[in-house]
Amino acid sequence: MADLNPLYDPRTDNAVIDPATQVRLNQPLAAEAFTPEEQAFLDLILGKVADKTINLYAPSSLLNLPVYEALSAEAKGQADQNTVPLLAKIRDLVHLTSLSKAPSYQVKNLLDSLLDTKKRLEEHGDIFII
């Protein structure tokens, strides 16, 4: 049988990694500081999670119910479809910020993604409490 992966070298399989290299590989990539908008949004989200306004396992806790109830069926459907992925990103954000308070590319990417989704969906009104 031909080798399925021409890049695989069985001699290096499970090879010992130098501890200094392992430490360097485990360090998160440094990122630029948060913009004031990103920092305010992060503080808002973490504050709502801390005071239990946002339940990390209840997508409906993200909804601003008075605004949501007044939406058309199509807009409600869009909001419903996006609450689960938004909440998953918030859970990731909470986890990453519990590991380190320093800005990282992962946190900045999650914040940007959350802000973009929120802005796109809130053309109909202030649907979310974030």
Spans where pLDDT lies below 50 across 5 or more residues: none
Q: How many structural domains can be distinguished in the coordinates?
A: 1
Shape: elongated
Distance between the amino and carboxyl termini:
56 Å
**Total beta strands:** 0
SSE string: HHHHH
Offer a concise description of the structure.
Helices cover 55% and strands 0% of the residues. It has 130 residues and is mainly alpha-helical. It has one domain.
Task: Describe the 3D structure.
There is one protein chain. This protein is mainly α. It has five helices and no strands. The protein has helices at 19-26, 36-50, 65-69, 73-99, 105-121. The protein has one domain (31-124). The protein is elongated, with a radius of gyration of 20 Å.
What labels would you give this structure?
single chain, 130 residues, mainly alpha
Topology:
Blueprint: H1 19-26, H2 36-50, H3 65-69, H4 73-99, H5 105-121
